[in-house]
Structures are given as C-alpha cells and as structure tokens.
Predict the structure.
Amino acid sequence: MSLVQIRRIAIQLDEIFHEGGEPRKVPHRRGAIAMVCKNPYAGRYVEDIMPLIEALNPHGLAMAKKLLAAMQARPDEIEAYGKGAIIGTAGEVEHGAVWHPAGGYAMREALGGTKAIVPSTKKVGVAGTRIDIPVHHVNAAYVRSHFDAIEVGVADGPRPDEAVFILAMTIGARVHARAGGLQTSEIKGDDGLR
C-alpha cells in the first residue's frame, strides 16, 4: 500500500486589482493547492521518515502541474512561490519537514529549474487550521516586491491522522509594491539570492 493516501485536493485562486491605489489592468494573480492525505506516521514515533519523501515526490510534481493548469499559466509566467504543511494533532511537526524536498524540488522542476530556494512553513493543527505560506521570487530571494504570504486552509483537514501539503505560486509582484530593494530587472540569477 502506498504511503500517500489522498483524501482530497483543494485549489484556491486569487486576483488582486488594487489595495487602495490605482487599479491594475492586469491583476496580481495568486494560487495555492492543498493535498489532504493520511499521515502514515500519525500516533507513533518513527525514526526513519525518509520513505515518505520518496512517496511524496511524484505528488509534488503533479500538484505543481495541476496548480499551473488551474492558474492558466505557463511555467515562465510564475514569478514567486512557496510551500507549507499542516500536520494533524496525532502527528508531529517533523512530518511536515518531509515536504521540503518533495514539494520544493518538484515545484522547481515543474517551473523549469528555478534558482531560489522555495520558502516554507509548517505546523501542527486541527481541522480547519489555516497557515500563511511565505512566497518570494523564484530566481532571486532578495527581490522585495515579491515578498508575500498566501493564507491557505482546508475546512475539514487535517484530521488528527492526516497531513495537508501545500504549494503556492504567484504571477507578478505585490499589487502596489514600492518598498525598494532589488528589482527584477537587476536579477543576476547566479545564486538564487540576487
């Protein structure tokens, strides 16, 4: 039996035209996908949790592709990304850490080999818990105009023996970004930072 038993997948999409300033002709588009699945390690301590990373790898790639399709976006249109996990109360926060490689590498592959590390967060919570998924530029983490967060949650998950694994992507900078810092036109693309 597979370590990953999916109960549901939820997708949320958001278009922001303005936040008090002049409305944009093209909105800032954001999306997130959440996979609710059984936590195979819930209710007990398991020393070796690495098999779950391998089992999650293909799901991370499938989720990234599904989110791109829902956003009606090409990989080169995605400018910022992030990931996260909510672990049900019979699990532990370390069970969310398996999503670092499984979700991050999969999303970077789906987007054509982006340079910047995928920012992440995780926590333990009850059904309906929401989490802020941090996002930053896909090729240069220091681009301030793309620092943001997307709040994500699933109304009936995670149940105590479940986990919710999340990917998030955005098209464009924050709608009225004006906090200075490295500009997208200044990205060198060497180290994932600048």
About this structure: The helical segments are 50-71, 94-97, 99-110. The chain has one domain: 6-186. The longest helix spans residues 50-71.
